[in-house]
Amino acid sequence: MENFEFHAPRELADVYALLDEHEYDARLIAGGTSLVTFMKQQLVQPDHLIHLGKVSALRGVDIIDGELVVKSLTTYRELETHPLVLEQAPQIAEVLGHVATIRIRESATIGGGLSQGDSAQDGPGLWLLLNARVVLSSSSGRREVAIGDFFEDYFTTVTEPNELLTEIRIPLPPANAGFAYSKFLPRSEDDYAAVSAAALVTISKDGKIESARLTLGSVAPTPIRADTDPLVGQPTDTPLIDTVAESLRERVDPLDDVRGSAAYKTDMAVVFARRTIQLAIERAPR
User: Fold this and answer.
1) What is the C-alpha separation between 69 and 124, in angstroms, rounded?
2) Do 119 and 220 meet the contact criterion of CB atoms below 8 Å apart?
3) Which terminus of the chain, N or C, has less C-beta within 10 A?
């Protein structure tokens, strides 16, 4: 790693001042599980490193106006085991329990993972499924951005150089929804997935699909939301599930890498999309 100047502000105002002063020459660091690796590989070489660990305003989990509000320094493990999450949004705990190892989850932060802009992580597809929004703050104020608009490309988000992701706001999922999360791991269990899929489904009293959401990660520069509108109003065994899954062949754009070829990942995206939405239907209360 190259030499850099280290800053450890305690107040948000000081973070904003440092970002205003150094902009593209500065990087924010919290758990450091991704950034430090990038710095060691010389993919990122900031002149200024701004550590957020002492900024207490960036910690906390709460429910406000029917939404789970998660401050950016909350670790994956904290969110996975938080009583409010276990009671109101257990889907989040289920997915985060699949992230790497407990050691990583104890350090990695929700804001850091989002800011990395990596669709291969477990979080992005989940946040897209739950219609989450991120709050970006700076000395000029704050703005909310829907997750679907937050990711632009591989490792690229809409965050401006002088902005900080301060929280994520997640609408509570319906209590009567069936949920499923699946990911294809051709290597070790703590590796990034070659394909991940998440589904949320509600079933009406007459046994028809009332609502359906399906998202995929790891198969494109950004997380993908499938078009599940054809499933609404259909019986739970509708063959249109296959149609929705097959339509993803035209949406995904995976890379060839050590986890498989692009063609193989495309096939797996279809398989896991079908499997995950069927499992969510099975789990949905009748």
Assistant:
1) 16
2) yes
3) C
